[in-house]
Amino acid sequence: MKLKHLYLSLFVLSNILVFAQKTKPNTIQEKLRGKVKSMHFKTYEPEKRDGKIEVKNANQTGLNVLSLYNASGYLTEEKQFSGPDDKFIRTTTFKYDSKNLTIEESTGSLVDKYKYVLQKNDTFEIIIDHDDSKQISSYDKNGNKIAETSRSDKKTYYNMIYEYDQFQNLVKSNYVNEYYDINVYDNKNNRIKMTRYEPNGKLILIYKTVYTKYDNNDNWIESVDYNITNENSEIPLIITKREISYY
């Protein structure tokens, strides 16, 4: 499915305490409640059956990712699978220092090193050096990513700018010179609507998300995404299921 392209992401001792206070555990970034140990995320193609939206084929998944977290809520491993038998594809491993700052990300033989640069007013940058490019992410004093760029010596691959509301929800993602997304959230701070526009403001699409199941920790474990660009129709696009385990 093409939808995975739509959704679908911490220097010197004097600075280390600032970063330790400001960088957020992954479980908080992902708005997971409770001491989450793992989350298995799977997407499926939907179909309407007897007036209900059901999984068309449970043996066919789109995204199939298992995330493992340490007791502090930081992502340690991300395993990708495919097919009906959860065939293993690859593992990405994250290494941290004693202050829970990511220092290395590795997938097979590919290893990315993280560098941290303190800016004014408790803001900071994370610089990740790839083989032939560099990714630079800027964060505000609350630990929210506010900008990101990827570039090599010869070209810039993309520039992104992010905006947040008073609840630290991402309300606008601007893929500079390409498109921008506006997000709306419910009272649980889960995104329920995403509207995408061209840079000139022309509407591209509108998606809405309906959360159909929650676990005992009030984390959603099943949702359905719909294309509602045409106000006269509501097209189911994807069913997402999450299996969450706790410490």
Task: Summarize the structure in words.
The protein is mainly beta and 247 residues long. It is built from two helices and 18 strands. The chain has a 16-stranded antiparallel barrel. A hairpin with a 2-residue loop joins strand 2 (46-49) and strand 3.
Q: Secondary-structure blueprint of this entry?
A:
Blueprint: H1 13-22, H2 26-29, E1 36-44, E2 46-49, E3 52-55, E4 64-69, E5 75-82, E6 87-96, E7 102-107, E8 110-118, E9 124-129, E10 134-139, E11 145-151, E12 156-164, E13 170-175, E14 179-185, E15 191-197, E16 203-214, E17 220-227, E18 235-246
Q: Please provide the count of β strands.
A: 18
Mean pLDDT: 88
Give me the number of helical elements: 2
Label the overall shape.
globular
State which percent range the strand residues make up: over 45%
The helix/strand series, from N terminus to C terminus, equals HHEEEEEEEEEEEEEEEEEE
Poorly predicted runs? 1-21
What gap, in angstroms, lies between the N and C termini? Answer: 33 Å
Strand order of the largest sheet: 1-4-5-6-7-8-9-10-11-12-13-14-15-16-17-18
Return Rg in Å: 19 Å
Largest sheet: 16 strands, antiparallel, barrel
Can you give the helix content as a percent range? under 10%
Given helix and strand content, the structural type is mainly beta
What is shown here, in short?
The protein is mainly β and 247 residues long. The chain has 2 helices and 18 strands.
Key features?
16-stranded antiparallel β-barrel, two-stranded antiparallel sheet, mainly beta, 6% helix, 2 helices, single chain, 247 residues, disordered N terminus
